[in-house]
Amino acid sequence: MVTVAVLALQGAFLEHEKVLTKLGVDHFEIRNSEDLKRPFDALIIPGGESTVMGKLLRELNLLEDLKKRIAEGLPAFGTCAGMIVLAKEVEGGVPALPAMDIKVLRNAYGRQLGSFYANEDFADLGKVPMTFIRAPCIESVSGNAEVLAVVDGRIVAARDGKLLAVAFHPEITDSTAIHEYFLRTVAGLNY
Questions:
Q1: Percent of the chain having pLDDT more than 70?
Q2: Dihedral angle of Cα 129, 135, 138, 144, to the nearest 10 degrees
Q3: From the first residue on, what is the mean pLDDT of each consecutive set of 10 residues in the chain (191 residues)?
Q4: Distance set, CA 34 to CA 56, 58, 61, 150, 169 (Å)
């Protein structure tokens, strides 16, 4: 059975858990270093506040273990702030788990009033619903990272091996397409 860990320090972790439940995927929350003793096949890093997440990852002694696991091939999926956490380079911020060859611009779309919804192409999935809330964007990709979606001329999704990052919140729409893409295509998991 496939098990996905959801980083539950703050942010939209419950919404990701609801999608995983809808898909019939076993999951649990990572809240402290004890939780890392449980086996899991993939990690979801939700939206929220990337600076706070980085601080809590360090304070709760989760940072180095997760960094090591991701470097060793643990599939990880970051949404919004989770994308910032996974980026190797962050304009106006410090990467927490620098794993993806992407450069991210925080708050690319402005503050809360800059939030919006789009229905755009994503990789080979066709049109998918995308909700942007104080969203970052990807300024550039390098290495093996590849662009998966562009909205209004800005890169909003990328893949780098077993890592997926999106600037939007797929967990707050009715669609499970992006989570399924992560689990099946990026992580290579059968559930």
A1: 97
A2: -60
A3: 96 96 98 97 95 95 97 97 96 89 86 78 97 92 98 96 97 97 97 86
A4: 15, 14, 10, 38, 28
Cα separation of 150 and 126, whole Å? 12
Q: Which residues contact 109 (CB under 8 A, 6 or more apart)?
A: 115, 116, 132, 134, 135, 137
Active site residues: 80, 169, 171
Distance set, CA 149 to CA 40, 83, 109 (Å): 28, 14, 16
Q: How far apart are CA 52 and CA 86, in angstroms?
A: 14
Q: What share of the chain is helix, strand, coil (3-state, %, to 5)?
A: 30, 35, 35
Q: Which two tokens stand for residue 187?
A: 């992580």
Give the list of residues 6+ apart from residue 63 with CB closer than 8 angstroms, or none.
Answer: 54, 57, 96, 97
* Secondary structure of residue 73 in the 3-state scheme: coil
